[in-house]
Structure formats: C-alpha cells, structure tokens
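Incident log, support desk, overnight shift.

02:14 A customer reports that sequence design results differ from what the structure should imply. Their input is reproduced verbatim below. On-call engineer (initials T.W.) acknowledged and began investigating.
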C-alpha cells in the first residue's frame, strides 16, 4: 500500500504540469481552462534519507530506488480537472469528478501565484491568489456536504421502528473518505450538536462536512509558477499575511522541475529530483545554458524546484506520516538483500502497528521490537519515529 496524494485547484494553475514533472508522465497541459477532463494516476516519489549508509550497507530497494544515500519511496499522485467557484451548483465541470480524490490521503492545492489567471483559469493580470486559496476549501466542503446529505437520506429511508444511529449511516456513505462512525460521532458532539439530525440546521451540516473534510483531507499549498517575478512578489506578500499563518506553503515551479528532469534524462545535466543544484555535464547551446542558469538561480534561492518538496511536506509535515525501515539488529541481511523496504506509516504508529503493516501473522506473533541503532528492545506500544530502523521479534 502506498500513500495517495491528490492535486486540486482551479483550471490552468499547472496541476497537470506538476503531475508530469513529478511522475514523468505526459498528460496534456494547456493555457486554457479544462485541459484535463479525465483523471490520471501516476507514480511519484518522496525522498527519505536512506538508513543503510549508517550501517555500512548498500541498500537494495524492492520498490522505488536509491540515489547516493537518498531513497525515493513511491507515492501515488492523482491529477483531476479544475474546480471553479460554484462547482457544487454545476459550474464548470461540477464537483462530481472529485470522487476520483475520495481515497487521497492528503491534498496538494496547486495555486497560480503569478496572478496571471483569473478565478476560472482564464488569462488575466494582477489576480490575487488569496481568492483562490479561500474559495477552494469552500468547494471541497460543499462536496463533502453533498455526500453527507446522501447519508442523511439513507438514514431517513431506513425502516421505522428499528433503532437508528445517524453516525452509522453517515459513516457508510462517507466510508470512501476513510472516516468511520466513531470519528463522525466525535465531530458531531465536538461541535456541540446532538445525534438527532432533525435538529441540525443547514449551517450545522456545513460545519460537520467541513470538520470531516479537514480531518480526512489535510492540505498543503504549492505556490506554482514561482519562476515568474510576479509570483515571487505575491509569495513574499502572502506568506507574510497573518491571515494565512495556519497554512503550509511550498514555493514551486513545475516548469523548472520538468526542464531539469528532461535535461537529466538527455544526459545534459546531473540532477537529483528535488535538489537545490545541478551540474551541466553534456554539450549545451548558449541558449540552453542561459535557460539552465536561470533555473539554477531560482532553485538556489528557493531551495529546490518545489515539486518534490510539496509532496514530502504533504506526507511528512502536514499528515505527519513517518518512514520506517525494517532492519536486523545483529547486522545479518536476509538472502534477498538488505534495507529492501522503507514503509510510510501514519502518524503515531507503534511497534505493533508496524508489525501488522508487515503481515498480520507478524502482528499476531509480536514479542517486541529492537531499535537497530541503539540495539535496545522497544515495547509493542512504543511510538516510532521518522527513519527508525526496527527489527520485529516474534514467537514464530
Ligand atoms: N511559468 C510557468 N508556467 C506554468 C508552470 N506550470 C504550468 N504552467 C503553465 O500553465 C498552463 C496551465 O498548465 P496545466 O498543467 O495544463 O494546468 P492545469 O491546472 O492542469 O489546468 P486544467 O487541466 O485546465 O485544470 C500551461 O500553459 C503551463 O505551461 C510553471 O511552473 N511556470
Ligand atoms: Mg490539467
């Protein structure tokens, strides 16, 4: 199982360009709204510092790859159509297509920071990206509200007489969002509401939808098109605006990332995805060199092209996920290789969660874990940390 990251945003912000840069796919990109209609799913990677060098080992990854001590762990990326204000009333392509994001664990909201596209994705000048940030959450909430309303219909259509629990019907209807009846009950009670939906006003339902959306779709903002000066100005202004302090922004240029990866494929540069620098190793024309030097200046100033950084911040910062390596405390490698796996687990995962992630039999037979760095025993309820290397000891 790998994590799923969804790309959202109004049309023409560069979702598909970001998707192509991250996954090296070739889905259509265009400077007009609704270039994308059907969704695409591709394989992207998140970087994790490999633990193998600390143990004087060379890893042999079973999935993804390792480049000079940097592990590239697969994560699924989903590109969908653009969303515009009023989508829940059918504007643009509506919001039905968002069901393609049902199973996304986290969203990256791609925003055109250059201000050169209006709220519907048409070319303009001087548009304030703050408007885009504000409307998108509302549209996502309306999508959740639609599904919540269907859950209420389900609740009301049940037979009379039978004891009904609204959280069960809502959980059933919203199960694709990876929520459950306990969480829904917690949300409803947490808002000071009763579990009788006949007492809910429209704004109560909206509040419930918003809270479930926030919990099940944490979100990060990728400030795209940062290769343009106007975007850099907006970025400085908006990241200094205290109204937006609660959000995580990552400056990005899908164009820069794609150009560098293409140049690397063509043997022109030596570039590791996400790095803040590269070397020119092939023959380049003056024009090409000039373009590359501009990109160099940009990634040097912002610490990278931002595509990798967005995906990693979404998983590891916004969601709080951790990467864990199965290891061997006495340094023995198994026949198939060493440091083959690096698993991404939810925030707060324990030794026991890790054991069950490996296999249900391993979870059932768990005695304890061993932290391979300190060689200390760790209990089954011990909370693991990012980049821990753990051996699981079982009865088997
Ligand atoms: N300067 C610059 N332009 C970009 C960047 N990323 C995308 N663009 C341009 O923005 C336009 C829209 O790009 P798309 O990737 O098609 O945008 P989208 O969000 O997928 O659009 P829809 O599919 O219509 O929702 C294209 O002309 C891209 O070349 C970037 O990082 N920098
Ligand atoms: Mg697109």
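02:41 Re-run completed on a clean worker. Output:
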């Amino acid at each position: 199982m790998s994590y799923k990251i969804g790309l959202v945003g109004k049309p023409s912000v560069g979702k598909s360009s970001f998707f192509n840069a991250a996954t090296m796919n070739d889905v259509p990109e265009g400077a007009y709204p609704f270039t994308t209609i059907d969704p695409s799913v591709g394989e992207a990677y998140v970087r994790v510092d490999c633990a193998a060098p600390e143990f004087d080992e060379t890893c042999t990854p079973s999935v993804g790859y390792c480049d000079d001590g940097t592990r590239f762990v697969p994560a699924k990326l989903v590109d969908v159509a653009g969303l515009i204000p009023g989508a829940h009333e059918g504007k643009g392509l509506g919001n039905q297509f968002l069901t393609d994001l049902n199973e996304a664990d986290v969203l990256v909201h791609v925003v055109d920071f250059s201000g050169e596209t209006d709220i519907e994705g048409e070319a303009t000048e001087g548009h304030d990206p703050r408007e885009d940030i504000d409307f998108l959450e509302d549209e996502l909430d309306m999508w959740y509200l639609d599904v919540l309303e269907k859950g209420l219909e389900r609740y009301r259509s049940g037979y009379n007489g039978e004891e009904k629990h609204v959280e069960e019907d809502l959980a059933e209807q919203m199960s694709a969002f990876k929520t459950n009846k306990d969480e829904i009950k917690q949300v409803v009670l947490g808002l000071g509401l009763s579990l009788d939906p006949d007492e809910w006003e429209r704004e109560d339902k909206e509040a419930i939808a918003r809270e479930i959306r926030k919990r099940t779709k944490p979100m990060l903002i990728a400030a795209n098109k940062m290769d343009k000066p106007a975007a850099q100005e907006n970025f400085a202004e908006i990241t200094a605006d205290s109204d937006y302090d609660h959000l995580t922004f990552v400056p990005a240029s899908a164009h820069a990332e794609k150009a560098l990866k293409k140049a690397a494929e063509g043997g022109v540069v030596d570039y590791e995805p996400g790095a803040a620098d590269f070397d020119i190793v092939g023959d380049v024309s003056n024009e090409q060199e000039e373009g590359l030097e501009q990109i160099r200046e940009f990634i040097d100033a912002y610490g990278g092209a931002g595509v990798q950084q967005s995906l990693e911040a979404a998983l590891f910062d916004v969601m709080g996920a951790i990467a864990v390596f199965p290891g061997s405390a006495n340094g023995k490698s198994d026949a198939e290789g060493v440091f083959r796996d690096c698993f991404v687990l939810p925030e707060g995962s324990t030794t026991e969660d890790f054991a069950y992630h490996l296999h249900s039999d391993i979870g059932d037979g768990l005695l304890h874990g061993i932290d391979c760095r300190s060689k200390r025993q760790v209990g089954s309820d011990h909370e693991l940390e990012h980049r821990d290397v753990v051996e699981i000891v079982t009865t088997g």
